[in-house]
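lol ok so funny story. i was supposed to be doing the assay writeup but got distracted and ended up predicting the structure for this chain instead. priorities right. anyway since i did it might as well share w the group, maybe its usefull for someone
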Amino acid sequence: MGKNLKGKNIGRGICQTKDGIYQAKIYLKMTPKPIYLYDSNLNSLRVKKKRFEQQKLNNFFTTQSLLTVNDWFDHWMEIVCAVKLKNTTIQNYYNNYNRIKGSIQNIKLIELTQSHIQMAINEISKKYKPSTVKSSLNALSTCLEYAEKNMIIANNPCKCIVISNYTDRSFVPIEQEDEMKYITKDMLDLFFEAAQNCRSRYYFYILLHTGLRAGELCALQWKDVDFDKKELHVYKTINKTRCYFDIHGEKLEKSIASVQITMPKRNASNRIVPLTDGVIEAFLKLKEIQKNDKNGNIKWGSENEFRKTYPDLVLTTKDGNYFLPNYVEQECKRIVKKINTKGKALAKEKNRAYEPIRICPHMFRHTFITNCYQQKIDTRILTDIVGHTNSKMTNHYTHPECEFMHREFKKYEDLL
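and the output, tada:
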């Protein structure tokens, strides 16, 4: 008879561990090692153990339970994910799983334990940030959760796994440096000065004053821009992703890269964005540039595979091809490099140090949200404008400047 921490008998094959969790041990003919079931509630564990033993009697654990983790992941992706998820989400699942699969991929589901998962997590924690490790663990956990719900395994071994930060083990107090996500006015002035002779200055101006994601900007059509109402209709995005399944959910022999215009993953991303006069002017400039590209180029748009379905894309290359988010990123890097090259040269001339600036397209979205917050725009309205599901995410994107914080704190000081 097993006992709890107080020494009371709680049933054959059941005990309580030092951390208070109840554990049941079951042996199967197909494996020499016992299977462990866990639960924080004793009655729940007894029900789980009884169900497991019934499945054992019915020889349930003789087929899928003997699949390796790798084979089960592929099976799960094919029968569950391929029929309901976007290709970008599927690609993320593969990327996250490939990161963690190293030491566990050939272990049978029925033999997979928390120890195996913990060791795999410890290993990748030495190479990746905790947030990246958590994404990999979540992908594996979702896969095994499906196995648990379908009674292929007794419990999900990903539960209670600890993620360690191996890159920060010194415990020496250091001043926290904020990860730069907000673009200051001085940095913006430098950026737009460097981009003044490029058409891309209009891309970044629009991103800065609408909070659009780069993929949403690249998927815009002229019909989505309402110049009269000064509104923008946002309901799709464009991306280049790796496809593992065809449109019927059948696994491809070899994954392929594909460019797709799709609906956003969340309903909140389907929205209306108000436009300033400056943004309206930027769109009109882009329209004029696109018109000039078309003139004298009879092959304009001939290689654009979306031209039939989306004939009026706002952002196009000089030859009329579609524009991808990574093109926006490359252009951003080019402009930033131009700024830093000039800045380093001036600093060397004056014999002083130079701190390179770092700007990426998504920072324009963070900056827009922060500027709106500092102008005291209602959070509920701002959440709708930027397409967040809740205000908590909007707050995550907000990075008030020190000057703004001091002004706000002055309100408290005035009360004293």
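The CA atoms of residues 68 and 107 lie 5 Å apart. The longest helix spans residues 325-349.
back to the writeup now i swear
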